[in-house]
Amino acid sequence: MELIIATNNAGKVREYKDIFAPLGFDVCSQGEKNIHIEVEETGTTFEENAALKAQAIYDRCHTAVISDDSGLEVAALGGEPGIYSARYKGLATEHERRMAILDALQGAEDRSARFVCCICYIDRGGARHLFKGVWNGSIACAEAGTNGFGYDPIFISEDAGGKTTASLPISFKEKYSHRAKAVAMLTDYLKREAVEKVEKAGR
Known about the structure:
- The chain is of the alpha/beta class.
- The chain has one domain (2-201): Maf protein (Alpha-Beta Complex), CATH 3.90.950.10.
- 34% of the residues lie in helices and 22% in strands.
- The protein is built from five helices and six strands, in the order βαβαβαβββαα.
- It has helices spanning 10-20, 46-61, 94-104, 170-176, 178-201, and strands spanning 2-5, 26-29, 64-74, 112-122, 128-139, 155-157.
- A hairpin with a 5-residue loop joins strand 4 (112-122) and strand 5.
């Protein structure tokens, strides 16, 4: 069955192909299906934005679609940057966005934070399914590490032994991250769905 990933990010598409091809899906990006649209993220939650992107692609092709939306929530900043993580305060670079958070937390006792990822899967029949992964941790006092991207150089997950995500191998993030957790929930659902279809066919 065909599965379209609502992104043209080559790395993300490759990751999803590795995950879903063994489950019997023919995975491709929206660009590979000649769908060239940029969906405005007008939602107020990760769930809403993921659903907006997935629905826009589904409305064009009427086949299974996956989209995700993710970001960093810092407790002392009232949950910012949240859904605005990729465009926090209108700053142009990832480094500037990281420094804005570090500057805002100077002297703060509470440095707790979490990464959130919401995946929206729309099946071939048009039904929406949402899966949310959360990765708890804290904000470091300074940038460290060169692996990863975004806020990885300032995020210390609860399972990282005090090191920033960017200071650890990429494989660590792929196994423990917010996106990894959301993907695990989705794959579990798809596996259960496949088993149920086989059982129904055998009745």
